[in-house]
Amino acid sequence: MSSTTHLLYLHGFRSSPQSVKARKMANWIRQEFPQVLWWCPQLPASPRQAMADLLAGVADWPHEHMAVVGSSLGGFYASGLAQQLGCPALLINPAVYPSRDLAQYIGQQTAWHDPSQSFYFEPAYVEELQALEAQPRSAQPSTLALIAKGDELLDWREMLARHQAGRVHLIEGSDHALSDFDLYKDEILQFLRLL
């Protein structure tokens, strides 16, 4: 099995590279795997633009040696990228129907980690999510979904139904942010072909 030399991390809606999980993973990579190229971009509000930027950003990456991690909306994007690029994806409480769930957030939004930062979530972005949701899914995805039954924002049953073709770790309790993220470090690093 190829080892991972390039790792992409995708944050969730209203989140940023400053999220707790993103910073923890960045530290793990910096301290334990300094040879791995780490990229955790700030994603634009437009789903179409986000996917275009990500595909452009990894265009020169060796797909057989890359992996992607995504949380919530980032997990939705990560699943789509993994299908297009044929790389493994770790999905943390991944959004399943973001067009439905985010329709209520049309309008001005503040960034979770810095309320002084804001963006406008346009109605067109819901349509862009619908287009991404309609793309065909891989029959045998190379994914590991960490799904918390205690997720207060997303329904774990929907996440399980969507991602059961890949590997699933169904977690009793926890929450949407997966606050006990550190408990799964070894499993995460092994799946990402770092250990």
What does this structure look like?
The protein is α/β, with parallel strands linked by helices. It is 35% helix and 19% strand. It contains seven helices and eight strands. The protein has helices at residues 20-32, 47-57, 73-85, 98-102, 123-133, 156-163, 185-191; strands at residues 6-10, 37-39, 66-71, 89-92, 107-110, 118-121, 143-148, 167-171. Strands 2-1-3-4-7-8 form a six-stranded parallel beta sheet, with helices on both faces. α3 (73-85) links the parallel β3 (66-71) and β4 (89-92).
Biggest beta sheet attributes: 6 strands, parallel
> What is the CATH third-level topology name?
Rossmann fold
Distance from first to last alpha carbon: 11 Å
Q: Provide the CATH superfamily.
A: Alpha/Beta hydrolase fold, catalytic domain
Features:
195 residues, alpha/beta, Rossmann fold, two-stranded antiparallel sheet, 35% helix, globular
Helix and strand layout, with pairings?
Layout: E1 6-10, H1 20-32, E2 37-39, H2 47-57, E3 66-71, H3 73-85, E4 89-92, H4 98-102, E5 107-110, E6 118-121, H5 123-133, E7 143-148, H6 156-163, E8 167-171, H7 185-191
